[in-house]
Amino acid sequence: MSTPHTLAVCLDAPMQSWGLRSRFQNRDTAHEPTKSGVVGLLAAALGIPRENTSDIQRLAQVRMGVRVDREGLVERDFHTVNNVPNTAEKDHKTVISDRYYLADAVFLVVLEHPDRDKLLRWHAALHHPHWPLYLGRKAFVPARPLVHPDHTSTFLGVSSSTLDETLDAHPWLENQPTSLHRATEALQQGREVPLRTLSDAEPTDELAEPRRDVPVSFAPGNHLFATRPVRTGHVQLTESLIHSGAHPCT
Known about the structure:
alpha+beta, Alpha-Beta Plaits, single chain, globular, 9-stranded mixed beta sheet
């Protein structure tokens, strides 16, 4: 049986958007990164074009887990676009849309794969991406690096551990002094501080729920997605997780 390896990635931005069911003028966001969004991020870093369906599908085979290190607030932008052309090329209209996004969220994304060299290539690409990286929309750029410059670092690097082990043991990505103080105080008072997780699960898992966000094709005009089983869980925050990682990645 192959030894699993994981790559830990930080997704932190003032605004993020991870669409699940966006249709026409209603652009939604999930409360955590989608698999299609993370695969798209990897594809941009590696320089894989949208039309390269086979490579996109290979990327999507990676097992993925997310730990919510700071829950974001769902916000809404009301957009109007004037003079939108139509097929008749006259009587241009105004298009109104609601666009939702997450504000001030921070996520630990863990990718598990038996091929360590592949994860090392992904790490290098995320550190020096082929194309600019953004978190769901082009205006939503990362607030800090996605990975540590040193791939061997226990903080946002590649490790010989399982996805669940990395979700449990990786340092907390929170870097706001007020939140760090509040969490430390709660733990010292004996209160639990759970961090929500969402991970790829086996189809036979009775507690798994379907999520339609596995990319089959990103080709323009032919976006296709498949369904994956995901399971929600929790990791209990500890003081060691706080003090070992409460800093920006530089």
